[in-house]
Amino acid sequence: MPQEKQSEWLEQWSMLQDNEMFLFKDWIYPFSIEDFRGKDVLEGGCGGGQHTAFVAEYARSVTAADLNAVDVAKEHNRGKANVSFVEADIAEMDLGRQFDVVFCIGVVHHTDDPDKTVRNLARHTRPGGRLILWVYSKEGNALVEHAVEPLRKLLLAGMSRESLLRLSRLITLLMYVPIYTVYLLPLRFLPFYEYFGNFRRMTFYRNALNVFDKLNAPQVQFISGERARGWLPEKEFRDVHISPYKGVSWRVSGTKL
Length: 257
Prior knowledge:
By secondary structure, this protein is an alpha/beta fold.
């Protein structure tokens, strides 16, 4: 990884001061962390390696793949003998084997072709194995898709990472005003009402990183429930589970036939 890119990731991950296992458990529902125990696991898009570290405590082996952040993920998982890393595009890679569990959290919607990415992850899932995905939903994100995203592309595309991080902190600070006032009232019709509940569960620095991630992502496709259901067809998967999370994302999982 280029030094500049690695420094960017290190700066982001240094902000993670709280343990986010509770979020990871929410995202992989109805599966649990125990479902990784003794399994050979593939993580598609490991980022800085935090989820890799969670799973490594239970799995027999973890293969973590990412196109940009492998060096940082390695540092985050130093000393874990059961973890290996592959620098690869998860939509194109061919690892020559299949895994008991394949999971991809918050990455598919940032790829060039989410449908192709999921097909490739499914190809790496063994028969009887489990595929677990978490993606941004089209439902509940109209404001972000049709207002925030166009403005981001128009105004922020040329902004430096350092400036974007400062802006993310400012935006996060401003968001705290309604989140800790109006959004404490039982007004569930408000946009992002459920989602902002998670803001109150995390530190300011983690929330700022979340804002930064949304502003910094080169691209995002919001996934409809219908599109997500098409990823795990009945002829290929059983025990398919698709459920909304906090009104802004989908949890998608199933067992491969």
